[in-house]
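Quick question: what would this complex look like in 3D?
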Amino acid sequence: MAAHTSRTYADVNAVVGGYLRDLAFAQSSQQKMFGYKRAAAAILSLDVPLTDLVGPDGALPKIPGIGPGSTRIIREILDTGESPTVERAIADSDRRADIERRRQLRRHFLSRAEVRLILLDPSFSDPSLEDYYGDLQMHSEWSDGAPTVQQIADACLQRGYRYAAVTDHSYGLRIAGGMSMAEAAQQRHAIDQLNARLGTEFRLFQGIEANIDAAGQLDLSDDEAATFDVVLAAPHSRLRRNEDQTDRMLAAVAHPAVRILAHPRGRITGSRAGVMANWDRVFAAAVQRGVAIEIDGDPARQDLDYSLAARALEAGCLFALDSDAHTTDQLSYAETAVAHARLAGIPADRIVNCWPIDRLLAWLANPTSERLS
Ligand SMILES: [Zn+2]
């Protein structure tokens, strides 16, 4: 069993961010609700723990997005570990049950500061950021992302990557600006030109994030899927159902074109639990097919998280650690995925992003080649 799945210390920014979100949902004024949500987001994305920001006189520095009300809550939590003020606000509101539900949906999420501490902590051996050669889920202007493929390549090179896959949504997901096959052909042309200019220094793959429908089928025909360098499959619907969806996920994993099961649950922090399934069966099927299980590093997703990822590791799965970036700044979200992999104890050898490009290409061509005997 992986060694690091039970941490004994608190992620203070996650605790504070959680209380501020509770307080947001206890408000009857929309404006106050947005204010506390903004404050929570500001704390969760800080690079350092709040305990490191307190001055010798006990004062907190000015933090953008944090008003006097939030500062009082932060003080209370830093002094006592909890917030009676927030608990009172919850008790006085008519949203107790909803806030309790949301609290359950914050488990195993890491703040940005915690991610950075885990990356620097020498007690975790694998994977380090130096082991991480390229990111295999991100979105460009061709679907719901902002950057051009050129901007993506530049930003990936700046991060020291050897390769990356741009994985726009396929046409079945109209809400996310899904790319038609005609657009995909144009994007392929742009990527080919880019790769010709870049030579051997860096390779941009044309991937696709296919949508898993209610029955576990993809929104791509086999011929369409075959035009992409890498096919990710991900659920974007039926994410709030209280019913088992194991068969749906087994069907997606069994699709011969799929190489990565992306954000497998579709969970969102403090909001939705995502797909309910017998994950051990899904992991076992992924092992048989050579499909990699993704750790999606979007801070709101963190899907899989380290606790479920440790079970996938025990099953013998391969992993993909991806940012799911929609802007070039968000490429840093890959670090969240690396932190979860460290907590789960996943060796770099089981992570497709830590492979040299030749090994990655061989697996894409023949996914069962990496099955552990
Ligand atoms: Zn997605």
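Answer marked as accepted. The first strand starts at residue 134 and ends at 135.
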